[in-house]
Design brief:
This protein has about 675 residues and is an alpha/beta fold. It is globular and about 95 Å long. Mean pLDDT is about 90; it is low at about 1-10 and about 600-605.
Length: about 675
């Protein structure tokens, strides 16, 4: 999820790899770490003439210059095909190199991977801090008597036979593990946030989740003292105080979390941190304490807005309580992700409706980012075991495990030939609706929040059924013969195109307002407000000798770039209050007002909107860049002579200074020249 204050860049070092590297460093072995995520960014930045034909070639060119005898990969499901192709390429040119896989994906598909890809020599399953060094010792050939058959937790080849040793024991004392070897990541200075493992395992057993399988349901937390000690080291050595706690359910042990927060509050240093939690594993008191201790982000896996499906998938959350916990985190200024999943095999339209309504209802909260993913049958999960013989490859990929819109053709060939190795790219058949329908609903609600803020929430509160709104929209779009041929292709989705926002505004002002709306005036006003952001405004270029930072009588004020002004016929403050508090929109009173806000701050629309008084509106219109503040104040004699006994000149000066403080106007040392951004010619005053 994305968290302030590092929202613009959420790249992080490869935690699992660096954790193993730290163990090796303690043994006197310094491994070379290649961060493929950073390498991919370097690949994208290459000039066209310098860039290899594909990323795989770029990787090989980078790594082949490094000396090594063992090539190890951490694996996750979304990039598993690419990982295997890299390993194959190196094995082709370096047959003596031992290729080792570890991590979540290889651990649960070890046997089918070894059968399908003979260039893989070893797979280290599960937690590897004890196992991996033993494997290297057995491979060292330095007189070690350690036999591969005695190394727990590995799968390997012995001639033509594949041997799977018993599982290794989990690391019970996480405090004994060293701090990850962050210094081995060449990109360490670039990061805004550092991940820190604070625990492992989850005591719950949701049917779709792979965490329980990988960690054998062994829930553990580091001691509060160890967590804070490692946070301080990160801050001292790398100058980073933003820490992302790596653990699926940090708050499962409430006592330890309270102790951690209290120690952190009293340690005399400032940290910002984020974590993952279940909504039934926190309460309002704990959330308040976490916020006080510097918690800036929580990832809540809600999974479904359907009370029935909560039981089916073994999540078993009370959804009313979930909303209250999310609301509490929001009130404390904690950025919160509310993650949902759809396209479960048993999911009915009523279940989907509940999830979509839950998703859109989250728009009420300023600090909440709802997320919706299509279900993926992750290897090793209960749901995969139940449906592994029924999987279909429909090329409607899930983003539940960070997969993209498209796959490389070579990857697709591998996926087609090996469903038991790559089940996450497959789909579980759905009983009540086509997966293409789930996919379009998911795209609709996910991308609608890119273009709109209040309109979807108004539709939900006005109609009570956002899925019905979608169905009506879909029918309207079809009848209008709008081209949506790219809905299920690898191209940029229709719903992420600006054309969708224009089409949806037309739907809102024509069909919805006329055929469905209960609060017609409210819907009309919200569309008018949001449409201001969607209309590409070509502001004139302002050529000024000097933009001033100080407001004075001799300055030349002009309207800020991207400023929008609109006249409404309803009470805007009451409208926003009604949306936030889920009140009847038909009760929003009429009121003629003028509002102004900045285009650059669309995400904070409800905060940045300014309701202008008649005087402020008149003053704003006079700020044309060709009159000084003193000129405008002098011309105010045409206004009311006094306001509450204060001379009009003083009132106007104060009003202009407030417009400047609010960012609605800027000031220049000399008259400004406006240039048409299309023609480059100067515009006349007042243009």
């Amino acid at each position: 999820m994305t968290l302030d204050p590092y929202q613009e860049d959420t790249r992080m070092p490869p935690l699992g790899v660096l954790s193993l590297a730290a163990v090796l460093c303690e043994m006197g072995i310094t491994p070379q770490v290649v961060n493929l995520n950073e390498l991919f960014i370097d690949f994208l930045k290459c000039n066209r003439d310098e860039k290899p034909v594909d990323f795989l070639t770029f990787i090989v060119e980078h790594i082949e210059s490094l000396p090594f005898d063992v090539l190890s990969f951490s694996t996750i499901c979304s990039s598993y095909p690419l990982t295997l192709r890299i390993a194959k390429e190196f094995k082709k040119f370096n047959p003596g190199v031992k290729t080792i896989l570890g991590g979540p994906q290889a651990s649960v598909v070890d046997i089918p991977t070894m059968k399908a890809f003979p260039f893989i020599d070893f797979i280290v399953r599960g937690e590897a801090e004890d196992t991996f060094p033993l494997l290297l010792e057995a491979l060292s050939g330095s007189g070690s008597s350690l036999k591969l058959e005695t190394v727990p937790g590995i799968t390997f080849r012995k001639g033509t036979e594949i041997i799977r040793n018993p599982n290794a024991q989990p690391v019970l004392d996480l405090d004994s593990l060293p701090l990850p070897a962050y210094h081995l990541d060449p990109g360490i200075k670039k990061y805004k946030v550092i991940p820190l493992e604070v625990g492992r395992g989850c005591p719950f057993n949701c049917t779709f989740c792979s965490t329980s399988e990988f960690f054998n349901r062994k829930f553990r937390l580091k001691s509060p003292q160890k967590i804070i000690e490692q946070m301080k080291i990160i801050k001292d050595e790398y100058g980073i105080s933003n820490i992302n706690f790596n653990h699926d359910n940090f708050t499962a042990n409430r006592k330890k979390v309270v102790e951690f927060c209290e120690i952190l509050i009293n340690c005399g240093e400032t940290f910002f941190w984020s974590c993952s939690a279940r909504t039934d594993q926190v309460d309002d008191e704990l959330i308040a304490l976490m916020a006080k201790a510097g918690c800036k982000g929580i990832f809540f896996g809600v999974e479904t807005g359907s009370a029935r499906l909560q039981q089916v998938i073994n999540k078993k959350l009370n959804l009313s309580d979930a909303v209250m916990r999310i609301q509490c985190a929001n009130q404390h200024g904690i950025k919160t992700a509310a993650a949902l999943i759809t396209a479960f095999p048993e999911e009915t339209k009523d279940d989907l409706r509940s999830t979509i309504n839950f998703f859109v209802d989250m728009f009420r909260f300023k600090n909440v980012e709802p997320q919706l993913s299509l279900l993926a049958p992750l290897a090793g999960t209960q749901i995969h075991s139940m449906y592994q013989d029924k999987l279909i490859l429909d090329y409607i990929y899930s983003d539940m495990s960070y997969q993209g819109w498209e796959q490389d053709p070579v990857d697709i060939e591998m996926i087609q030939a090996n469903p038991e190795v790559f089940p996450n790219f497959y789909s579980i058949p759905t009983s009540y609706m086509d997966r293409s329908y789930f996919k379009e609903v998911r795209d609709f609600v996910t991308y609608i929040q890119v273009w709109f803020h209040w309109l979807p929430l108004a539709f939900l509160q006005d109609s009570g059924d956002m899925l019905n709104v979608f169905d009506r929209w879909r029918t309207w779009r079809t009848n209008k013969l709008i081209d949506n041929s790219d809905l299920n292709t690898s191209k940029k989705p229709y719903y992420l195109n600006r054309q969708f926002s224009k089409d949806f505004c037309e739907f809102a002002l024509t069909y919805y307002q006329n055929e469905m709306a209960a609060a017609k005036k409210v819907i009309s006003s919200i569309v008018e407000i949001e449409n201001l952001f969607l209309t590409q405004k070509s502001d004139p270029i302002i050529e000024s000798p000097e933009k001033l930072e100080i407001f004075s009588l001799t300055a030349f004020p002009y309207k800020s770039r991207g400023l929008h002004v609109a006249q409404l016929s309803i009470d805007y403050k009451e409208l926003i209050r009604s949306l936030r508090d889920k009140k009847d929109l038909k009760q929003v009173p009429d009121k003629n007002i003028t509002i102004a806000f900045q285009e650059a701050n669309r995400k904070g629309l409800e905060i940045d909107v300014r309701i202008l008084s008649p005087l402020s509106e008149e003053l704003l219109n006079m700020c044309d860049g060709n009159r000084t503040v003193n000129d405008i104040v002098s011309q105010s004699s045409s206004m009311k002579a006094q306001i509450d006994g204060i001379p009009s000149g003083k009132v106007c000066y104060f009003g202009l200074s407030r417009l400047f403080e609010q960012g609605l106007i800027e000031v220049s040392s000399q008259p400004i020249i406006k240039v048409d951004s299309n023609t480059g010619s100067a515009l006349q005053s007042g243009s």
